[in-house]
Amino acid sequence: MAKTNPGRFFEDYRIGQVIDHAVPRTVSGGERALYHALYPARHALYSSDEFARSVGLPMAPLDDLAAFHLVFGKTVPDVSLNAVANLGYAEGRWLKPVYAGDTLRSSSEVIGLKQNSNGKSGVVYVRTRGTNQRGETVLEYCRWVMVRKKDLDAPAPEAVLPELKPVLAPEDLVIPEGLDFTKYDFTLAGEPHRWGDYAVGEQIDHVDGVTIEEAEHMLATRLWQNTAKVHFDATHREDGKRLIYGGHVISLARALSFNGLANAQMIVGLNGGAHANPCFSGDTVKVWSEVLDRAETAAPGVGALRMRLVATKGGAPFELKGDDGKYLPHVLLDLDYWTLVPR
Amino acid sequence: MAKTNPGRFFEDYRIGQVIDHAVPRTVSGGERALYHALYPARHALYSSDEFARSVGLPMAPLDDLAAFHLVFGKTVPDVSLNAVANLGYAEGRWLKPVYAGDTLRSSSEVIGLKQNSNGKSGVVYVRTRGTNQRGETVLEYCRWVMVRKKDLDAPAPEAVLPELKPVLAPEDLVIPEGLDFTKYDFTLAGEPHRWGDYAVGEQIDHVDGVTIEEAEHMLATRLWQNTAKVHFDATHREDGKRLIYGGHVISLARALSFNGLANAQMIVGLNGGAHANPCFSGDTVKVWSEVLDRAETAAPGVGALRMRLVATKGGAPFELKGDDGKYLPHVLLDLDYWTLVPR
Amino acid sequence: MAKTNPGRFFEDYRIGQVIDHAVPRTVSGGERALYHALYPARHALYSSDEFARSVGLPMAPLDDLAAFHLVFGKTVPDVSLNAVANLGYAEGRWLKPVYAGDTLRSSSEVIGLKQNSNGKSGVVYVRTRGTNQRGETVLEYCRWVMVRKKDLDAPAPEAVLPELKPVLAPEDLVIPEGLDFTKYDFTLAGEPHRWGDYAVGEQIDHVDGVTIEEAEHMLATRLWQNTAKVHFDATHREDGKRLIYGGHVISLARALSFNGLANAQMIVGLNGGAHANPCFSGDTVKVWSEVLDRAETAAPGVGALRMRLVATKGGAPFELKGDDGKYLPHVLLDLDYWTLVPR
């Protein structure tokens, strides 16, 4: 019997099935430092223990997206090894900050299945939860992927499509315990703009750009223990290119959005996201944002903004889709998230 | 007087000479995190403090090979600066796990000398020991290198060839105190295969591959404070290529072997190893393994496997040498080691 | 109103103005480990907690230059975003070592202003201080940059040129509390050369070289949260090259000087420095040093050396300027600093 992991095929999934993913991971100051080396991350709450304490947290947490990547990376061998497309995200919520010393693991429940009409593949919906060493859920999100069938004769399962919220409501968002922005230091954070300064519909060109190198995206993707061949093996694709992990683009885009959104400190909700076009080494990534919605929260001094974050490789900002409704070729990422901002 | 280190030449070594190597090093979570960024390392015992505690250790140790590289790196200025070839390893044993906070140093004893018949170089055998801040030996191994003479008129020393075991016996292996695999969690570790599932002669193609970038091998090699010119200075070799540190290939190969050997948690013995051909940036490394032997141990639930680990740059798996008995040109590494596996 | 930071222009500075820079940063073992991966750093005092304790410090500090880069990086958005040239450094002093767990912030005072005769730009002099979480100054230095005017009609300020010492006097240097080199272990440090072994005028060719990769300088520069476009965005300059942060060259040069200056443990003074020519990916950096002065200190066993450190990309060592008094084209860096050495 072959000892290597062949991955699951469409016919291997069952509604309600729970998959406990392998390789728990303890994080330390090392992961925090690497995140700052890999991305131009400057949000003060994740950079300074003192700043984090000044807003009611015990110390600076691991970047929210680093937590996401660590939880996500564990799911790859079980969920997306034989995936032909990563179709979407929904209902992503950060429930507890992750701190140095925490050990993360993750598990996924199959919540939807629908075989494609061609009979060769199907769509698998999972809800993934990341938990810490105390068994507390730190993060959960839904993802759906198209997965190949191995046995084309395997019977199609009854189609089950989960009801997923297109957008999280403000009351769905979980504010970290103790978070208090009433003594927020705007000078240390880097910009004066408050929650009230952002208007729905406002667009921001974040100006800065980063040209990606192979070594960088591989270091990052390995750090999250996401070992999908296509990111590392230049002989795997016919064109000899290594596809950059979509999460690398998300983190790069979020970090680049600091310039104009320095006070968008925490990410607490992921409404959806599309990897519109593949990203490769040599691409120069630039980003723009749009304010989609605003909401108050019960936490002192804390407001929420729903933001669109778009990463492009060249092209003018604020252009997203063509007349055909499809993403323009230079668009890499279209992300819809909720963030916490001082009022 | 020149203040830079010219390195030792063959005539500078004496049997019984002990060289205390410079630059002790304290390790932290930073080195652990970097190891995960540099290699696709996923063995659970080194990734999770919780998993390590579940098998009787106080926390996740530094990867065994990282400990090896740190100890090895210190020897380079004293042993291999004027080496023309790295000939072999033997009797490598890991005696104590290395944890964040430990400070490592190393020393080498000259245990063999033999001048070559051409009178221009000779073979130097050393036994190197790595010790922690408590003076405990954490690792020892023998290595032999061919070193140039500077003074060709220096008299040849009496030839002394050490008796080195071609293979460590199971009773030579040191099992970390407290290690207990009876409650081993195979789901968290990533594969169901136990010690008893591996048969002598069984071969495993580990499937995954990594294309190496210059920045990556230099970051890694520097991290171990191995500063041999040939790895860093593109003007040093006539062909303008930077030779990749052999240890980088060892770590990459070991990490890639996770897929099929996820439960080969700890490396406790190094029987031998050959860097069959040089490795350069752009090479895509793939690996295969062969089970060479099996042994029981006195530790609860712990078995030992003697494994061959072969790294290649392309070429079919399981092909090692040609009809002439020489390594095939695509073979990079042929390593023979003992590892601990749950029974 | 645009929310992104346009940077300050020449007319935005006032004598006596104090700018508190954004984004404080807590350092950990992660930054220490990354420094060892990014540079061939081997000075024992920064590598080993045990060695640091043997010379009177509580543990190994963060490398002095890493502290410099962290303090410097915070000033970029406020001081040099619209700079056309980085003109010089003076009166740099390290006042307190920085340890894992410390949180650094920085502020700058405008101490000089002089509009250029063309009316389009001017020179801004700032004194920057880095402080830790206890409000102690850990580092201070002066820097002057040429900054563009935005409003060419803005009136020229009264010219104020600060009096800056061309060289710090030995009595200006601050020796870390408790530092005692009387039990200094030269074997562990890597070289036998003491303070008394270095003669004024002595030159050292440090022999080793490193060829720089794009990924490396970007990782380093981001780690210091210096996000100036020109280092990251290959589309920013007309030639498609990313300019390497001058501080990356400083750190690389200092680390390469280990071979011949292994006992030049701590940097305590920066007298001046010039980035003579731009550095780009692919350059192979080599370094040489010259002893400029020597001084005794009040600390037990501790002497000070004033050193010139020159980084080049090829070319013979010890050649610095042409007949025209200008730096030769292969010279990258000319640094003048004070370092502490065992007597």
Which structural traits does this protein have?
eleven-stranded antiparallel β-sheet, 343 residues, homotrimer, 8 helices
CATH architecture of chain A: Roll
Quickly name the level 1 CATH class of chain A: Alpha Beta
**From the alpha-carbon coordinates, what is the Rg of chain A to the nearest angstrom?**
20 Å
* CATH level-3 fold name of chain A: Thiol Ester Dehydrase, Chain A
Shape of chain A: globular
Instruction: Domain count of chain A, please report it.
Output: 1
Q: CATH homologous superfamily of chain A - what is it?
A: Hotdog Thioesterase
Q: Would you count the extended β strands of chain A for me?
A: 11
The biggest sheet of chain A amounts to: 11 strands, antiparallel
User: Biggest interface and which pair forms it?
Assistant: B-C, 41 and 50 residues
- Secondary structure: helix percent of chain A: 10-25%
Low-confidence region ranges of chain A = none
Amino-to-carboxy terminus distance of chain A: 60 Å
Number of helices of chain A: 8
Find the structural class of chain A using helix and strand composition. Answer: alpha+beta
Strand content of chain A: 25-35%
Pattern of helices and strands of chain A = EEHHHHEEEEHEHHHEEEE
Average pLDDT rating of chain A: 97
InterPro entries (chains A, B, C): HotDog_dom_sf, MC_hydratase, MCH/BMMD, Thiol_ester_hydratase_Rv0216
GO molecular function (chains A, B, C): lyase activity
Protein name (chains A, B, C): L-erythro-3-methylmalyl-CoA dehydratase
